[in-house]
Amino acid sequence: MVWKPHVTVAAVIERDNRFLFVEEHTPHGLQFNQPAGHLEPDEDFITAVKREVQEETAWQFEPEHLLAVQLWRKNLDSSTFLRLCFTGQCHSHDAEQTLDDGIVATHWLTHAEITAEAHRLRSPLVLMSVNEYLSGQRHPLSLLKSFLDYE
Q: How many beta carbons lie within 10 A of that of residue 127, not counting itself?
């Protein structure tokens, strides 16, 4: 059997000291997460994170920095995730848009509210990413290179 991690993207989006979160149905009940999802075939990382934010929150997202590249596995019996976490700004909210399946609501949460809901976070990477953002961690998007259909 070939081992393959799940490649995902996520966005830490801050506005007025609040962070954009989604509340979503998961196998473990309702949980909070950054807008995030899986990389799709024929999609680069920037396109993927813009799409995921739009589908899950109805906001248009413009990535400005790479926040972290995270490799996570809950335990030996769990799937492994390779997560690229971005930060940037959002604009142009479409209040009429239907959100992705499983998304119950979007919320703008303070750091204190996120910490208070730590037991409901989708993974430990959620709070880690917010803390890395608050510490000033940023990396240029030019680190990312895509060579799809490149000979």
A: 16
Burial class (CB in 10 A: 0-12, 13-18, 19+), 138: middle
Cα separation values, 28 from 31, 64, 83, 119, 150, Å: 8, 32, 20, 11, 40
Phi-psi region of 127 (alpha: psi -120 to 50; beta: other; left: phi over 0): alpha
Instruction: Quick: pLDDT tens for 93-110.
Output: 999 999 999 999 999 999
Alpha helices in the chain (DSSP H): 45-57, 111-116, 124-134
Residues of 48-75 as b/e, b for ≥16 C-beta within 10 angstroms?
Answer: bbbbbbbbbbbbebebebbbbebebeee
Q: What is the pTM of this model?
A: 0.94
CA distance 29 to 104: 11
CA–CA gap between residue 20 and residue 59 (Å, rounded): 10
Q: Which pLDDT score, from 0 to 100, does residue 150 have?
A: 78
